[in-house]
Amino acid sequence: MVSDDPGGYANASLLETPRSLFDTLDAGAGPTPLLLDLRAAEDFAAGHVPGAVHVDLWGVSLIDTDPAPLRAFMWMIHHVLEARGVTAARPVVVYDDKSGVRAARAFWFLEYFGHADVRVLDGGFTAWVAAGLPVTRDVQAATPAAWSPEPRADRLATWRDVLEVAKASGSFDAGVLKEVRAFLEAPSQWSAAHGGVSSFLSS
Fold it and tell me: What is the residue range of 62's domain?
């Protein structure tokens, strides 16, 4: 459903406004969307959208995108989403506090796995509360589902893909790639050694 306030987004149809989501849930017509709350566990426990299922992917990451570890990592993510009730036939709405990185990661994983109907709650839980919509502390147990994903290779760029593009464009710089990897693997240590994050962004 298109956002009531697209705000210039190229793909506003990927957003679900709090009011439109509430109306859909309240009407009970058609397939009820699966709500995935990507916030930290303590935030979910303090209050969430009624019917939402908690899943925290924040601490789960991969720094080696070679084929074998990538397959194992994606298998794990698929298993987690499947255990939370994701199926190909049921729409999914993901949210965090403010349509941030947590929700975006879940959205990307679902798109990569080929889910055809996934959206982000516009403004996240903060916007839901600001709209005066109901909040609950009741926990709804997830219903595990069987889901056979159809991964979309066009949604993923491994380090090999990036290297090939850089070489083809004539802009390959091994030193830059080495520094970027060092920053991504240990940003705090890199920042301490190079005078802060700003030096990375301006380099």
Answer: 12-153
- E strand or H helix that includes residue 166: helix 159-169
Q: What is the model's pTM?
A: 0.77
Please, what is the average pLDDT of the chain?
84
Q: Are 101 and 38 in contact (CB under 8 A)?
A: no
Residue 126: C-alpha distances to residues 18, 33, 122 (Å): 10, 19, 10
Q: Are residues 111 and 93 in the same domain?
A: yes
Q: Please check whether residues 57 and 143 belong to one and the same domain.
A: yes
d(CA 100, CA 188): 21
- Please check whether residue 3 lies inside any domain of the structure: no
Token couple for 111? 């798109």
pLDDT at 30 over 80: no
Instruction: For residue 50, give the nearest of 30, 79, 82, 28 by alpha carbon.
Output: 28
For every residue of 39-108, DSSP letters joined together read: S-HHHHHH-B-TT-EE---TT---S--SHHHHHHHHHHHHHHHHHTT--SSS-EEEE-SSS-HHHHHHHH
Q: Are residues 89 and 43 in the same domain?
A: yes
3-state secondary structure of 118: strand
Longest Cα–Cα distance in the chain: 57
Say if strands 15-16 and 53-54 run parallel, antiparallel, or are unpaired.
unpaired
CA distance 58 to 103: 10
